[in-house]
Amino acid sequence: MTDKKTGMAREKLVNIHVNGTACEITVPAWRTLLEVLRELGHVEVKCGCEKGDCGACAVLLDGEVVDSCLTLAWNADRRSVMTVQGLGGPGKAHPLQTAFIEHGGAQCGYCTPGMILAAKALLDDIPNPSLDDIKRGLSGNLCRCTGYTRIFSAIRAAAQALRQEGGTS
Prior knowledge:
- The protein is of the alpha+beta class.
- The chain folds into 2 domains: 11-86, Beta-grasp domain (Ubiquitin-like (UB roll)); 88-165, [2Fe-2S]-binding domain (DNA polymerase, domain 1), CATH 1.10.150.
- It contains 6 helices and 5 strands.
- It has helices spanning 33-39, 84-87, 95-102, 112-125, 131-137, 149-165; strands spanning 11-18, 21-28, 58-61, 64-67, 79-82.
- It has a 5-stranded mixed beta sheet with strand order 2-1-5-3-4, sandwiched between helices.
- The longest helix is centred in the last third of the chain and has 17 residues, at 149-165.
- The radius of gyration is 17 Å and the shape is elongated.
């Protein structure tokens, strides 16, 4: 459907792969990826500040960490989206998820999905990160509970576990 005044489309059929599952949805031009993911039932993607400051809504878009509250759903058309649910879960947790639990990297848990995905993107690029690398990698994510020390420890432990496994994050 197009706007008669501007001649621009008001809605578009968007095809995205969320955690490996193909999804087809018609969305208006202004709909964010966060809103679409939540509508699709992905409540693990948190709605925090809605202005790109907190990172609670972070997802991996074709492997790159993005704030889904700032990303229009149209920009995800024909692309792959990974939420923390797609990374792993009960019975098959990713080393980052395990390390966050073991090192107390999550307290209230609100920021945890975004933190874990930002950490995954970091470890994909830098398998053996320094503390400064970790701080830079998480710079778009805020936590109000932990003071970050336990989060940093969890990421270092996950990095070591991944290196020992010889796998990728």
